[in-house]
Each structure stands twice: as C-alpha cells, then as structure tokens.
Amino acid sequence: MARAFLIILDGGADRPVKELYFRTPLEVARKPMIDRLACEGACAIMYPIRPGVRPGSDTAHLAIFGYDPHVYYKGRGPFEAAGLGLDIKPGDVALRTNLGTVDDKGIVVDRRAGRYFSPDEIKEIENIMREVCEQVSKEFGVEIVYKHGTEHRGALLLRGEKISHEVSSNDPHKVGLPVKKIEPLVKKPEAERTAEILNRFVELASEKLRKAEFNERRKREGKPPANIILLRGAGVLPEVEPIYEKFKIRAAMVAGIALIKGIGKVLKFDVVDVPNYRGSRDDDFDAAFSTAVQLLANYDLVFLHVKPTDAYGHDGDPHGKINIIERVDRALAKVFDKIGDDVYIMITCDHATPVKVRDHTGDPVPLLLWGPDVQTDECMKFGERPCAKGVLGTVLGMDIMYILCNYMGKLEKFGE
After folding, report:
1. What's the pLDDT tens digit per position in 197-242?
2. Which DSSP string corresponds to 79-110?
3. Rg (CA), the chain
4. 395: which of 81, 181, 356, 399 fits an S-S bond (Cβ 3.0–4.6 Å)?
5. Domain 3-73+240-408 carries which CATH code?
6. Cα(167)–Cα(61) distance, rounded to whole angstroms?
7. Residue 304: which H helix or E strand, with range?
8. Contact between residue 315 and residue 330 where contact means Cβ atoms under 8 Å apart
9. Taking the domains of the chain in order of start, what are their residue ranges?
10. pLDDT < 70 regions, the chain
C-alpha cells in the first residue's frame, strides 16, 4: 500500500524581496533535491484557508490535515498546552504565553524578550511562575499550571468551576503599544471571573519577573529582560474525529514546537520527539528526516514540520530563511534513497511570512507532489512563481489530505 511523506516549511512562502533582486527566498535558495522533486512531479499553488485570509499556523494546519478550522478551531491555547505535555481535559481553559519586554511605562519593546533563554534562565522562570500559580490558585480557588516551551513560548492552563475561554488577550501584537487589560468577550460571570484571574496572574508575574536575578544578568549582558507575560489564544479542546478514523490511515508526526505537536496529539497522530529538534534555528534536520523516513516503514502518513523558516520571516531576515531552506534540502537529499518507491512526497507551506511584512499574509504558497505515477508538468523549480504554472492548479488547504489519500488509495468512491 502506498504511503505519503508530507513536509511543511512553516511560513516558507514569501513575496519578492528587493534585497534579493525581487526574488523570494525560495527562489534564491540552492535546493537541488527539492527542485528535482518539483521537476519530476506535479506542482500547484495553495491557499491554506481561502484567498486573502491570513491564517495562523494553528488554523492552517487544521485545514491541511482535513479539519475545517471554521468548525474545529476553539482557540490556540489547548494545542500549545497539549504539545507541552499538560494534561488538558474537556472544560479546561488554556492559553499560549509569550515572555516579553516592557519599559517602565508598560510599553512593549519586544514581544519575545530576545527569544532565547538559557536552561538556567528557564529553570528560574518556571520557579517564578510556579509561585505565581500557587498564589493565584489560593486567591481564586482554581488550579493554574504554567509550562515553559521553546524559546519565549509557553502555555497556561486553568481548571475549575466558573471559568471561560471567552476572554481577550493582553498582547498588543505590536511593539510601541501598551500591554492591554484582559477583558471578558461576553457578558457572562464566568468570562468576567476568568479575566480577573488572568489579570491578577499577569500583575503578580510581572512583579516577580522584574525583581528576578536572571533579568538583572540579562540587563548587564545587554539582553532584553523578560518582565511581562503576554497571554493569548484562550481556548478549550475541540471535539474531533481522530485522523485514523477520518481518513483510515496510521499517521505519525515529527515536530519541534508545542503548537504543532499539540495539534498532532489532539488529532491522534503518533507524535515522535527527536533530540535537538525543538523548532529553533539550530535544529538537527538530519536527525528529523532520518527519523521520519524510518517511520514510513510503519505508517501510512508521516508529517514533518520545519519551524525556523517562519521565525526568520518574522525577524525580517531573508538570508536566514534561505539558509534554513538549504539545510532542509541537504537533509532530505541524505535520506532520499532510503524512501521507498511507493512513497508520495508533498512539500508545501502552511502560510507565507514575508520578510518585508514580518507577519503572516493571505498569499498563496507553493506546493509540489512527487511520486511513482504523478502526472508531471512544466514546473522546473519549487517556488512561488514556478509552482503557479503547475498542473494541479490552485488548491485549498482542505484539499491536501484528499489529494494524498487519493494517491494512497484510501478514499471510498463518491457515488456509484
């Protein structure tokens, strides 16, 4: 039975960059392996949600895995929590967290507090957050748990009576703006109480972080202090049909960041951890691809997520983005001969993160499909403009699993 290997370059698509002579990072990157697959396969452009809609990585991946985000998306927080190993249950409220930096007037100057933290700093942060959780839990009679993730990211879980996910974020989403107050989004006692709990958590965490020893060290070293916690993506677990029931496939996932691993766990992928693969810029792509190819022996679908392309897009660094694409290409080339003859390879992006915009956009992304009997086209390279000429035309994120399952022979006939 045929199998599929799906690779997502998170935020890999881009717009023409003046610095690159109006080419994109994908067009500039030296990627002979990926370009070979595009040349020998079929290409397309894909809108993760629909044309013009700016997708989050959460909603885009839900769509790509065949779950309509308009139906199943109940907030990002639960996926972050599940991906970090928190035991989230129905009725729990979870939020994603960022460590950030504010000035003396409460104005955000860095939404990621420099992004990088040492293991010792992370231990100190988690100790502080544990104290904050214990104090707020006593004040409000709810259980609160914080878990640090990769770099500046983390998750916060609330469990108890009279709580709600219908609350706003305190993240202004831009530097130069003050931290917002968390507000109830509906006029319900549960939402009002939850907003009060979260505002108290932010207040107390900020007080303790400002006095923390590790932040004094960061200041001396010229690094931005982590003196605010930004909360967003409040949500609850969605009720979903497991992927093995929905598409009748065994699916495995290799990913580094909590969000994607959490989506995989909720959809019942077998999520496999790879050492030194954490969604950071020094990820071990060789180890990730080697693991993914080994998994193809036992699974119908293996999914591999590449995060740093998105991080460099957010940082406005086209050369960093190019470097990641080239490293991924080399890692794929090393294992290509070990991939079976009955495997279909699909490579695409979950959204564009143009270096000029430094955020997600609703642009189309390139897609290639390679395999034993895939109809070829005239596309010679993998990129935004070349793939627009591909035989597969224009597809939506919700089409991806059906395209793959069609080639794997996993779909029932529609009609007689």
Report:
1. 999 999 999 999 999 999 999 999 999 999 999 999 999 999 999 9
2. HHHHHTT----TT-EEEEEEEEEE-TTSBEEE
3. 22
4. 399
5. 3.40.720.10
6. 24
7. strand 301-306
8. no
9. 3-73+240-408, 84-235
10. none
